[in-house]
């Protein structure tokens, strides 16, 4: 019985972790190239909405994912261009984007689907969950991989890909240099704006995936502000990890676990108003505990 | 030496970007409307008449009270170079306290109202102090902690009014009614005493920012915190003060809504109208500058009331106003001349 | 054979200002070529043009006889130019070899080929005796070693012409000597060096030829072997200068500042200042000499209250102030001219009056019950603007419109008008023109005559020697010497700065006079021809 409990908990953890993990990997890339991306929340929300639009009208989950990727890419343009060519204020841009995402998805929800609050319909096709029978009987791997979406598997692979990109390739070296000393990188002929634009836009694809996973991964539904702070938690993971992808993944695992615990507590009868805040309370506790050690200071202006 | 009007000149430099951004947002919004098969001109006409036609004016003013209040919540820290993204949580804490206290006081009337409001202000101010404490003594960026603190406040309040504090006579998630004598006196139509109170608070901030030593220190810290510290301004003390006042105003707004309009704490009743985000955008539009913030707050409030009229007359969802506001802020963030004093 | 670098008729205008008015410059292969000039003479503009940072309005650049257009630093690098900036442009978190190969990494497949990179860097370092540990983190290295990394960066990019911008400003005399050896090795290899400096002795010691600039044009081309210090100075300022500074005798009074056993720890726990003790009397200027980064900033910040100290006492006129806030210390009589006027000393977007009042704003004369008395604030600001000759339109204009010298005058005006018992002046004349230098020096001496205690920190040894009554030498966070200025000589202090014993043979130097020849012009007092 306790075994069953832990298996379900583990699977719930991994499911809850995927969007946060993808968002925090994007956050890591942006932070490394010197753009403090606080718009993760809004980017993910836009992804979630357009994944539903794509799936509903395109008739396949793949169309949903594609729509999410394109939509988030377009939505991220103001951030990518604003912090580079236009020299805008990064924090204000991100705050505006988050509010825009919230307003725009609510508006379009009413315009496109004619509903408010939540939209669900059998015509929204979910992303298939992979059930690999040949792995089923291997003790740990079987549990870990059972009934997860391809996006989840991809997100795991991306931890390594991001790490490899950052710390082994010339592009990663330059990207880190651009983030640390843009003047020095520029003086050595590395185009700072180009690196930033490409990184911010490239990382936005991860948020498209995160959004699609959120709205098409577990349930096929979009509801207003359904990201519910996941983007901010991902940002906290980036800060706690000091922009290291491996540590960020570890932090996401922790946050995914708290999410799963919340669900678990709900299933044993606690009101969901209280269980829903578990991830945030635990996140706050973790930052306070960790704050003495890491210097995650950030002052506006 | 030429004779100049510094306030005018400063406003002059800021005005064009703000105006152009608003205009441009309406153009973008118009395109969105066109692409969704609506006539932008009809929609915008309904928006304006919804906001400014005589019968709707009291509604606009009533709506403006919380919006201007939440604008100040964001503007005051912004002026000092800080971000309080926790306005919603502080609003809920204040509203909840104001809904509970009158039910437990042994007396009613004026004293009960004052005590309830004071309790709401203090509770919300203290909740805001948590974020200041995090930044000052633990180095946690306030913009993250203040934002994350919204969730527990909202969740706990929601739980309380659904279970322990629930008004058992109704099926809705809301607390028990506040006695008649403990409600804010009404003035005209939907307007109650809360509106003049909020006007007084706004004027106090305008005066403070322009005319007092504390205001000077607030502005200088916002422009260059290192310079302020070097000049002997106690930044930590200032941050605590600013956050307490900011949170306190949010609490005041919550208590005015609860004691003056809802007469109880309704789950999601304080948050559904998006006063917090709207106020935050208004403050950003004006860069925290007091008169500009108040003006922007009034403008955004008018837009939202107009949005209600627009939705009724044209079936364009009123959330469009939120989109227009966000686009305005985005354009401001993209195109307003950047400050260079922090490298 | 064509010259390594040939520049003809370079013109660069910034609005009404002509930064370069037809500059010609020829640098031969295998020579060290000095570029001298005051602040604002146009050296930086010329170097930025050579390195492709800015584009000239007119003129041409030839490298080895071939006409080139340098549109970016990358263009300059491709054409064999390399530059070592005064402020290093290094990635602290990366290793030495990563810094050097950055942007030109050897690769194996998709991966940076660390082994090849390390070997290439080590080989270069070996060849020019620039010893570095290729795997060290740059953030952990000393200033001298970082400079070697900068030079290696240029050499890795096959620089034939190396521009060194004020390279010795941050070095100890010993490190500067080592740099001179490296420079000689580089020119022996057939490369050329443009050596930008304002230190007379270095330029005479190291270079083959010197080009002197004044007001954006070349004022002299000199063969180092056949010129004299006076000739270089004349070309720089356009008239003969006296290198003396008048420092009248002032009777010193009571102890104003007394620091004992002070230690300051950095965030990572290592000591920036250990067991420092010093006293400053009324009517006395005490100079702290030290190569940048030896703890003087931390010492000053601890006295001013901007940095917490780990131990020891700080007494102002007998009162312990070590535990007090910045504001409380200011009220008790501490004025402080900070090193960084733009990011610490002023708020750019705030008006001159706001900048001039900070620190005084709570005084009775400017407020009643927290209400600011605007008329008085403006009147005060206007008086200071006139008295200190700040060139600004009016007191309500933001100070981010001001030049460096004028901005510094705002800071100096505010701090000196404190009537504070103690004035801390940290690099008070860095990066300002000679007129402002003279003005600020005169003001400091006036305050000394009024009986104020002045603690002066400067990286310019000559400024310290010219102004101070007593000189302290700080090395690796410790005060290693405390000398009356008549016993101080440049040689002796130079040795102490580098951690030596200071037992250099005594040099004859008149009391109350800067030793001659002065190594720098920054304290030169002008005299009409």
TrEMBL record, chain A:
<dbReference type="InterPro" id="IPR001851">
    <property type="entry name" value="ABC_transp_permease"/>
</dbReference>
<dbReference type="GO" id="GO:0005886">
    <property type="term" value="C:plasma membrane"/>
</dbReference>
<dbReference type="GO" id="GO:0022857">
    <property type="term" value="F:transmembrane transporter activity"/>
</dbReference>
<protein>
    <submittedName>
        <fullName>Simple sugar transport system permease protein</fullName>
    </submittedName>
</protein>
<keyword id="KW-0813">Transport</keyword>
<keyword id="KW-0762">Sugar transport</keyword>
<feature type="transmembrane region" description="Helical">
    <location>
        <begin position="143"/>
        <end position="166"/>
    </location>
</feature>
<keyword id="KW-1133">Transmembrane helix</keyword>
<keyword id="KW-1003">Cell membrane</keyword>
<feature type="transmembrane region" description="Helical">
    <location>
        <begin position="277"/>
        <end position="296"/>
    </location>
</feature>
<feature type="transmembrane region" description="Helical">
    <location>
        <begin position="93"/>
        <end position="113"/>
    </location>
</feature>
<keyword id="KW-0472">Membrane</keyword>
<dbReference type="Pfam" id="PF02653">
    <property type="entry name" value="BPD_transp_2"/>
</dbReference>
<keyword id="KW-0812">Transmembrane</keyword>
<feature type="transmembrane region" description="Helical">
    <location>
        <begin position="56"/>
        <end position="81"/>
    </location>
</feature>
UniProtKB/TrEMBL annotation, chain B:
<dbReference type="GO" id="GO:0005886">
    <property type="term" value="C:plasma membrane"/>
</dbReference>
<dbReference type="Pfam" id="PF02653">
    <property type="entry name" value="BPD_transp_2"/>
</dbReference>
<keyword id="KW-0762">Sugar transport</keyword>
<feature type="transmembrane region" description="Helical">
    <location>
        <begin position="85"/>
        <end position="104"/>
    </location>
</feature>
<feature type="transmembrane region" description="Helical">
    <location>
        <begin position="61"/>
        <end position="78"/>
    </location>
</feature>
<keyword id="KW-0813">Transport</keyword>
<dbReference type="GO" id="GO:0022857">
    <property type="term" value="F:transmembrane transporter activity"/>
</dbReference>
<keyword id="KW-0812">Transmembrane</keyword>
<keyword id="KW-0472">Membrane</keyword>
<keyword id="KW-1003">Cell membrane</keyword>
<dbReference type="InterPro" id="IPR001851">
    <property type="entry name" value="ABC_transp_permease"/>
</dbReference>
<feature type="transmembrane region" description="Helical">
    <location>
        <begin position="20"/>
        <end position="41"/>
    </location>
</feature>
<feature type="transmembrane region" description="Helical">
    <location>
        <begin position="239"/>
        <end position="260"/>
    </location>
</feature>
<feature type="transmembrane region" description="Helical">
    <location>
        <begin position="280"/>
        <end position="303"/>
    </location>
</feature>
<protein>
    <submittedName>
        <fullName>Simple sugar transport system permease protein</fullName>
    </submittedName>
</protein>
From TrEMBL, chain C:
<comment type="similarity">
    <text>Belongs to the ABC transporter superfamily.</text>
</comment>
<feature type="region of interest" description="Disordered">
    <location>
        <begin position="492"/>
        <end position="529"/>
    </location>
</feature>
<dbReference type="InterPro" id="IPR050107">
    <property type="entry name" value="ABC_carbohydrate_import_ATPase"/>
</dbReference>
<dbReference type="InterPro" id="IPR003593">
    <property type="entry name" value="AAA+_ATPase"/>
</dbReference>
<feature type="compositionally biased region" description="Low complexity">
    <location>
        <begin position="509"/>
        <end position="523"/>
    </location>
</feature>
<feature type="domain" description="ABC transporter">
    <location>
        <begin position="257"/>
        <end position="501"/>
    </location>
</feature>
<keyword id="KW-0067">ATP-binding</keyword>
<dbReference type="InterPro" id="IPR003439">
    <property type="entry name" value="ABC_transporter-like_ATP-bd"/>
</dbReference>
<dbReference type="InterPro" id="IPR027417">
    <property type="entry name" value="P-loop_NTPase"/>
</dbReference>
<protein>
    <submittedName>
        <fullName>Simple sugar transport system ATP-binding protein</fullName>
    </submittedName>
</protein>
<keyword id="KW-0813">Transport</keyword>
<dbReference type="InterPro" id="IPR017871">
    <property type="entry name" value="ABC_transporter-like_CS"/>
</dbReference>
<dbReference type="GO" id="GO:0005524">
    <property type="term" value="F:ATP binding"/>
</dbReference>
<dbReference type="Pfam" id="PF00005">
    <property type="entry name" value="ABC_tran"/>
</dbReference>
<feature type="domain" description="ABC transporter">
    <location>
        <begin position="5"/>
        <end position="240"/>
    </location>
</feature>
């Amino acid at each position: 019985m306790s075994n069953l409990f832990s298996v379900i908990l583990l699977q719930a953890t991994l499911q809850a972790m995927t969007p946060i993990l993808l968002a925090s990997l994007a956050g890591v890339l942006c932070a490394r190239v010197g753009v403090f991306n606080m718009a993760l929340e809004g980017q993910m929300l836009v992804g979630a909405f357009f994944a539903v639009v794509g799936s509903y009208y395109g008739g396949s989950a793949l169309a949903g994912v594609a729509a999410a990727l394109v939509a988030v890419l377009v939505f991220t343009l103001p951030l990518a261009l604003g912090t580079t060519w236009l020299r805008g204020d990064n924090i204000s841009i991100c705050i505006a984007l988050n509010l825009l995402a919230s307003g725009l998805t609510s508006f379009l929800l009413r315009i496109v689907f004619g509903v408010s609050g939540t939209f669900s319909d059998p015509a929204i096709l979910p992303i298939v969950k992979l059930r690999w029978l040949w792995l089923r009987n291997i003790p740990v791997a079987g549990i870990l991989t059972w009934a997860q979406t391809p996006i989840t598997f991809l997100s795991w692979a991306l931890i390594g890909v991001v790490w490899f990109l950052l710390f082994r390739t010339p592009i990663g070296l330059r990207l880190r240099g651009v983030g640390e000393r843009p003047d020095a990188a520029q003086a050595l002929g590395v185009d700072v704006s180009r690196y930033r634009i490409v990184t911010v836009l490239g990382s936005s694809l991860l948020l498209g995936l995160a959004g699609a996973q959120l709205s098409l991964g577990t349930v096929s539904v979009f509801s207003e502000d359904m990201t519910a702070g996941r983007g901010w938690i991902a940002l906290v993971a980036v800060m706690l990890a000091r922009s290291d992808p491996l540590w960020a993944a570890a932090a996401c695992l922790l946050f995914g676990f708290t999410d799963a615990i919340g669900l678990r507590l709900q299933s044993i009868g606690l009101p969901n108003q209280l269980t829903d805040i578990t991830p945030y309370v635990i996140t706050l506790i973790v930052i306070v505990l960790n704050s003495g050690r890491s210097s995650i200071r950030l002052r506006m202006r | 030496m030429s004779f100049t009007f510094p306030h005018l000149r400063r406003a002059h430099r800021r005005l064009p970007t703000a105006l152009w951004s608003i205009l441009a947002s309406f153009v973008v919004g118009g395109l969105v409307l066109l692409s969704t098969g609506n006539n932008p001109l009809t929609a915008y006409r309904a928006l304006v008449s919804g906001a400014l036609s005589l019968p709707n004016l009291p509604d606009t003013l009533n709506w403006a009270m919380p919006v201007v209040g939440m604008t100040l919540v964001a503007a005051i820290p912004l002026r000092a170079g800080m971000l309080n993204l926790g306005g919603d949580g502080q609003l809920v804490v204040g509203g909840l306290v104001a809904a509970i206290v009158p039910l437990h006081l042994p007396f009613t009337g004026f004293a009960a109202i004052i005590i309830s409001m004071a309790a709401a202000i203090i509770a919300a101010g203290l909740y805001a102090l948590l974020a200041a404490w995090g930044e000052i003594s633990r180095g946690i960026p306030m913009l993250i902690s203040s934002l994350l603190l919204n969730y527990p406040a909202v969740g706990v309040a929601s739980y309380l009014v659904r279970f322990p504090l629930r008004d058992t006579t109704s099926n809705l998630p809301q607390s028990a009614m506040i006695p008649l004598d403990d409600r804010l006196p009404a003035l005209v139509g939907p307007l109650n005493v809360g509106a003049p109170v909020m006007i007084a608070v706004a004027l106090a901030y305008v005066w403070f920012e322009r005319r007092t030593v504390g205001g000077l220190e607030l502005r200088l810290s916002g422009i260059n915190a290192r310079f302020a510290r070097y000049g002997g301004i106690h930044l930590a003390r200032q941050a605590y003060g600013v956050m307490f006042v900011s949170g306190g105003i949010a609490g005041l707004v919550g208590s005015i809504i609860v004691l003056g309009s809802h007469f109880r704490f309704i789950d999601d009743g304080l948050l559904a109208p998006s006063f917090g985000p709207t106020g935050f955008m208004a403050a950003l539009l004006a860069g925290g500058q007091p008169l500009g913030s108040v003006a922007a707050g009034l403008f955004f409030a008018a837009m939202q009331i107009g949005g209600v009229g627009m939705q009724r007359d044209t079936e364009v969802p009123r959330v469009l106003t939120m989109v227009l506001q966000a686009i305005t802020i985005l354009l401001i963030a993209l195109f307003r001349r950047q400050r260079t004093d922090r490298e | 054979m064509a010259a390594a670098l040939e520049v003809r008729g370079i013109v660069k205008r910034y609005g009404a200002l002509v930064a370069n008015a037809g500059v010609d410059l020829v640098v031969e292969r295998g020579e060290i070529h000095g570029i001298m000039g005051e602040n604002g003479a146009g050296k930086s503009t010329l170097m930025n043009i050579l390195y492709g940072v800015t584009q000239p309005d007119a003129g041409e650049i030839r490298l080895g006889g071939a006409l080139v257009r340098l549109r970016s630093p990358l263009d300059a690098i491709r054409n064999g130019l390399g530059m070592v900036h005064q402020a290093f442009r290094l990635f602290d978190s990366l290793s030495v070899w990563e810094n050097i190969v950055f942007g030109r990494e050897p690769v194996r497949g998709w991966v940076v080929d660390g082994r090849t990179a390390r070997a290439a860097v080590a080989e270069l370092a070996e060849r020019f005796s620039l010893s570095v540990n290729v795997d060290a983190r740059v953030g952990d290295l000393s200033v001298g070693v970082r400079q070697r990394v900068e030079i290696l960066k240029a050499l890795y990019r096959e620089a034939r012409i190396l521009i060194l911008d004020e390279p010795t400003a941050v070095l100890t005399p010993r490190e500067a000597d080592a740099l001179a050896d490296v420079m000689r090795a580089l020119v022996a290899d057939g490369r050329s060096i443009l050596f930008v400096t304002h230190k007379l002795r270095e330029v005479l010691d190291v270079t083959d030829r010197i080009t002197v600039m004044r007001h954006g044009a070349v004022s002299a081309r000199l063969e180092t072997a056949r010129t004299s210090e006076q000739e270089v100075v004349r070309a720089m300022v356009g008239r003969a200068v006296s290198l003396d500074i008048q420092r009248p005798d002032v009777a010193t009074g009571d102890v104003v500042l007394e620091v004992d056993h002070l230690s300051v720890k950095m965030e990572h726990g290592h000591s920036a200042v250990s067991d420092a003790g010093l006293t400053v009397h009324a009517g006395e200027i005490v100079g702290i000499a030290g190569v940048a980064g030896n703890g003087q900033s931390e010492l000053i910040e601890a006295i001013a209250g901007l940095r917490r100290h780990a131990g020891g006492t700080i007494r102002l006129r007998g009162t312990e102030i070590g535990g007090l806030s910045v504001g409380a210390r200011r009220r008790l009589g501490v004025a402080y001219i900070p090193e960084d006027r733009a990011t610490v000393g002023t708020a750019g977007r705030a008006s001159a009056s706001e900048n001039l009042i900070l620190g005084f704003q709570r005084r009775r004369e400017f407020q009643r019950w927290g209400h600011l008395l605007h008329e008085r604030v403006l009147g005060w600001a206007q008086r200071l603007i006139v008295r200190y000759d700040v060139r600004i339109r009016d007191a309500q204009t933001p100070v981010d419109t001001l030049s460096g010298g004028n901005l510094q005058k705002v800071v100096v005006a505010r701090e000196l008008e404190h009537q504070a018992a103690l004035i801390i002046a940290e690099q008070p004349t860095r990066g300002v023109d000679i007129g402002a230098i003279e003005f600020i020096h005169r003001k400091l001496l006036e305050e000394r005559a009024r009986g104020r205690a002045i603690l002066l920190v400067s990286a310019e040894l000559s400024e310290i020697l010219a102004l101070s009554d007593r000189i302290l030498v700080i090395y690796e966070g410790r005060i290693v010497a405390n000398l009356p200025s008549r016993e101080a000589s440049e040689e002796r202090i130079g040795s102490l700065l580098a951690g030596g014993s200071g037992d250099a043979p005594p040099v004859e130097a008149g009391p109350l006079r800067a030793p001659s020849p002065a190594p720098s012009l920054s304290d030169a007092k002008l005299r009409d021809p």
